[in-house]
Structures are given as structure tokens and as C-alpha cells.
């Protein structure tokens, strides 16, 4: 998990930051390979098998929309970074907004090991809070690596509380509810489920209409 790329690229203005972190190389590489060898063949196959039916135009539209979305995410992953300088912390995340946090606002850090459906698959998470207990940011080792989290802790040099035992992601979310990202909120799940349902219903309606017109 400590697979990190530390050197900065020129567009990050390396002279400004004392510490610059990048997403793990293995994460970027595996994402690219998944797109090339899994997503692309699947998209081509879906469009190909839909050609004999009237649904091919809708299927092609959905495939193009998903391709654009995947491309945006990959570009965001390739350009994501964390930069720390004497004045603050800059975070350009993958699916979160670009943020600049003044260094004097970071009051304390919590480092925890979490797990999802299986206790064998754990992950380290680092959460920052201000003096009032308000959440500032959260970074995860699956993106930035264990070494990356350690570098952030060392660079900020504030009070660190480390959870003694691994906790489930559900317990962690209840313990620090404000740390959940927008895509982990219930409205995001409902939105994704609603869009998926609309796509499926639309395909079924078009297909049913085509059968009736034969």
C-alpha cells in the first residue's frame, strides 16, 4: 500500500510545496488496464449485439455517456495530488472538489483501520478536524498509500489519535458522520439507483414497443 509517487510535476509549482503526494502508481495502472481490457470490449460487445434491434441507438448513447464519465474519472485520477506548504494543505481529489485548507485550521488527526464486508480486507484512513471538531478532510490509503498518510501526519505535526483496533466502515461513519464524502451519502445512492432504474426501464420500453410494432 506504500506505492507512492512523491516527485512533483512542473504544473504543480513544486517550489511552493514542501510535500507533494500522488495516487499510487499501481492504482493508476490497474485503472487503465481495467478500462482497456474490460470496459472497452464490453462496450463494443453491447453495441454490437444491439444492432439488430431498435435499441442500438439508446445503447450506444449510454455507452458513450459512460465512456465520457470513465474518461473524466481517469483524468482526475491522473492529475490528483496533495500538496503541503507552510501556509496550508491543497487537495485535488479524484471525485471531490479542489480544496485549500489553511494549516492553522488543522487541529487534530484521527488514523483508523477500517474494513467493509470482510475483516480480512482492511484499509487505513486519515481524518482531520479543526479546533471545534468540524471535519476538514479525509484521505485513504487505497488511493494515497500508507506512506502517503504517514507523510501527511509528519508534515502537519498536530495531535494524532490512532484507533487501537480495526473498525467497520459503518461504525467509523457513525463515529465520524461528517467525514463521509458526498458519494457515500444516502442521496448519492438513491440518485445512482434511480438513474440505473430509468435506463433499464427505458430499454425495456423501447424493446417492448419494437416487439409490438413487428
Automatic annotation (TrEMBL):
The chain crosses the membrane at residues 31-49, 55-75, 188-212. Keywords: Membrane, Transmembrane, Transmembrane helix. This is PH (Pleckstrin Homology) domain-containing protein.
Amino acid at each position: 500500500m506504500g506505492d507512492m509517487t512523491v516527485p512533483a510535476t512542473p504544473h504543480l509549482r513544486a517550489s511552493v510545496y514542501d510535500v507533494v503526494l500522488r495516487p499510487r502508481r499501481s492504482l493508476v495502472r490497474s485503472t487503465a488496464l481495467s478500462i482497456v481490457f474490460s470496459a472497452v470490449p464490453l462496450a463494443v460487445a453491447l453495441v454490437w449485439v444491439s444492432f439488430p434491434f431498435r435499441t442500438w441507438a439508446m445503447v450506444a448513447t449510454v455507452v458513450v455517456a459512460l465512456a465520457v464519465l470513465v474518461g473524466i474519472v481517469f483524468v482526475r485520477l491522473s492529475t490528483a495530488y496533495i500538496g503541503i506548504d507552510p501556509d496550508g494543505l491543497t487537495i485535488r481529489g479524484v471525485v471531490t472538489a479542489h480544496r485549500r485548507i489553511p494549516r492553522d485550521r488543522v487541529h487534530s488527526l484521527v488514523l483508523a483501520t477500517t474494513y467493509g464486508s470482510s475483516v480480512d480486507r482492511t484499509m487505513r484512513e486519515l481524518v482531520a478536524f479543526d479546533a471545534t471538531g468540524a471535519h476538514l478532510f479525509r484521505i485513504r490509503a487505497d488511493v494515497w498509500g500508507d506512506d502517503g498518510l504517514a507523510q501527511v501526519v509528519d508534515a502537519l505535526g498536530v495531535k494524532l489519535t490512532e484507533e487501537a483496533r480495526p473498525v467497520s466502515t459503518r461504525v467509523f461513519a457513525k463515529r465520524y458522520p461528517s467525514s463521509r464524502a458526498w458519494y457515500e451519502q444516502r442521496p448519492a445512492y438513491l440518485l445512482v439507483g434511480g438513474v440505473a432504474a430509468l435506463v433499464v426501464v427505458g430499454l425495456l420500453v423501447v424493446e417492448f414497443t419494437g416487439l409490438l410494432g413487428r
